[in-house]
Design brief:
Elements (H helix, E strand, L loop, with lengths): L5 E4 L15 H14 L3 E5 L5 H13 L4 E7 L2 H11 L4 E9 L2 H8 L3 H16 L5 E6 L6 H13 L4 E6 L6 H14 L7 E6 L6 H10 L4 E4 L13 H10 L1 H4 L10 H12 L20 H9 L27 H10 L6 H17 L5 H16 L2 E10 L5 E9 L4 E8 L2 H13 L3 E10 L8 E9 L2 E9 L2 H20 L7
Parallel strand pairs: 1-2, 1-8, 2-3, 3-4, 4-5, 5-6, 6-7, 7-8
Antiparallel strand pairs: 9-10, 10-11, 12-13, 13-14
Helix pairs in contact: 1-2, 1-11, 2-3, 5-6, 7-8, 14-15, 16-17
The structure holds 3-methyl-2-oxobutanoic acid and zinc ion.
3-methyl-2-oxobutanoic acid binds next to strand 5.
Length: about 500
């Protein structure tokens, strides 16, 4: 495929701007590897100038990926561009994405810059980036609320300065398909260039139109779509890439173009991101939701049994949904467990497999059947605990009186040192969190607390998500256990561990 539709995945940059989502260093690397397996063309791995954590992630993703282009985001600021260069220089295909806002509201209220100043900034910084990068992508932020003649001037300036990818962000999810399509058509008709220029669509879903707008861009000449898996992102999120990919695949008759994605990796990629982001995919979500391929009504079931095409425009197998899951049970042995890990796409060393097998047996003793989701949860729980710098060693709870509970918490750090404290509270969770607060002695506010069950049924494992503000920084934590109080404690402690590793605060204040 010569001019295929390129997929630019920004799960690790715009996706991570989802409220309450912050991936760890390790999770970012795993997501990047899975995105490479899915076959995306470019990964926007982060905004290196924004934090040391983002810089290091982009750098390690650039060093690790073997085929995919790795891109970093930069404002029209020379230091941002230098940072992207430093972080991506070891990538097989290093890329930069330079942006500046162009709409009147952003120029006047945010940047305090005139049109001439914005044009000068574009010229200066795209040329500066071009010294380091063969391919420079430029985005006029809030393009869809920018006066069309001025948008043309901005794009022409970027192209003249050497940009070869022009991305048109619908930053606030304001546009509609015919209007957005027309922007691409107008740019293609008006921009003059002596080098090839690719047009790219970047949509937000505030009005629920992100995918429709992206498809309209393709109809009008865009050859690149930016977005995220499961549509995660700031506010209502970004274009859901899996929907674009399947839209192009199923309606080849209309779009006459394709992505190079390995569609069979779609479900696996979506699940990985949902787990790390701590955001469940809605059941009815197109392509990757649990119900996307199930038929409830008798008439539909009857039709599907006679001929699946009566009610199915695509098959679950196309996107890697396994319809014949073989659950494990308490009689399953090491071999069946190892086979299952491989089937679920995990590469786990023999030592860790032994530990996981023991944990699997504990779960199997408590549950009749251990499903794939249980195994994912088991591994996720273990990964969370192994990667975190703190682990919950012991949790003891005691009823005091009049609804008061007392909790004793013992935490071990990754150097083997233990910390212990106790507290009372008006309920079990409050007493646990008070005890942990006494151990860490940080300014902590619990912003969100949520329990999900990993599978259906009363014997399900509990998955607790918390969002905390610690010393002014938002962090999240996940804890998984059969005992939801222990899961709650693990989630809270993991958020503290993330705070220390992400914000590199060495407080020494236990
Ligand atoms: O939505 C947006 O405008 C962005 C830019 C940084 C491209 O994400
Ligand atoms: Zn965006």
């Amino acid at each position: 495929m010569e001019n295929h539709i390129q997929i630019f995945d920004t799960t690790l940059r715009d996706g991570e701007q989802t409220p309450g989502v912050n991936f760890t260093f390790d999770e970012r690397l795993k997501i990047a590897k899975q995105l490479e397996k899915w076959g995306v063309d470019i990964i926007e791995a982060g905004f290196p100038a924004s934090s040391t954590g983002s810089f290091k992630s982009v750098e390690s993703i650039a060093e690790t990926l073997t085929t995919t282009a790795v891109c970093g985001l930069a404002r029209c600021v020379k230091n941002d561009i230098d940072k992207v260069y430093e972080a991506t220089k070891k990538a097989v295909k290093p890329r930069i994405h330079v942006f500046i806002a162009t709409s009147p509201i952003h120029r006047d209220s945010k940047l305090m810059m005139s049109q001439e100043e914005v044009l000068a900034a574009i010229k200066e910084h795209v040329s500066y980036a071009k010294q380091y990068f063969d391919v420079v992508q430029f985005s006029p932020e809030d393009a869809t609320r920018t006066e069309l003649p001025f948008l043309i001037e901005c794009v022409q300036t970027a192209v003249n300065a050497g940009a070869s990818v022009i991305n048109i962000p619908d930053t606030v999810g304001y546009t509609y398909p015919t209007e957005y399509g027309n922007i691409f058509k107008t740019l293609k008709e008006n921009i003059t260039t002596d080098h090839e220029v690719i047009y790219s669509a970047h949509c937000h879903d505030d009005l629920g139109l992100a995918v429709a707008n992206s498809m309209a861009a393709i109809e009008n000449g865009a050859l690149r779509i930016e977005g995220t898996l499961n549509g995660i992102g700031e506010r209502a999120g970004n274009t859901a890439l899996e929907e674009v990919a399947l839209g192009l695949y199923v309606r080849q008759d209309h779009y006459n173009n394709q992505t190079k994605l390995n569609l069979k990796e779609t479900k696996q990629t979506s699940e990985l991101i949902a787990r790390f982001a701590g955001i469940r995919v809605p059941r009815n979500k197109a392509i990757v939701g649990q119900n996307a391929f199930s038929h409830e009504s008798g008439i539909h079931q009857d039709g599907v049994l006679k001929n699946p095409e009566t009610y199915e425009i695509m098959t679950p197998q196309m996107v890697g949904v396994k319809t014949t899951e073989m659950p494990l049970g308490k009689l399953s042995g090491k071999h069946a467990f190892a086979e299952k890990l491989i089937a679920l796409g995990y590469e786990i060393n023999p030592e860790d497999q032994k530990t996981l097998f023991k944990q699997f047996k504990t779960v199997a003793d408590k549950k009749k059947t251990v499903t794939d989701r249980d195994i994912h949860a088991l591994i996720q729980g273990t990964e969370h605990e192994q990667n975190a710098i703190y682990q919950v060693e012991t949790l003891q709870l005691q009823f005091v009186s009049e609804g008061l509970q007392s909790a004793v918490v013992v935490i071990k750090d990754n150097e083997g040192q233990t910390y212990q404290d106790s507290s009372i509270g008006s309920g079990s969770i409050v007493s646990i969190y008070n005890a942990v607060d006494r151990i860490f002695n940080r300014d902590t506010e619990l912003l969100d607390y949520r329990i999900d069950s990993v599978t259906e049924g009363t014997d399900a494992q509990g998955e607790v998500h918390v969002q905390l503000k610690i010393n002014g920084k938002n962090v999240t934590g996940i804890g998984i256990d059969h005992d939801i109080l222990l899961a709650s404690c693990k989630a809270y402690v993991e958020a503290h561990a993330k705070y220390v590793s992400e914000f590199e605060v060495k407080e020494g204040s236990h």
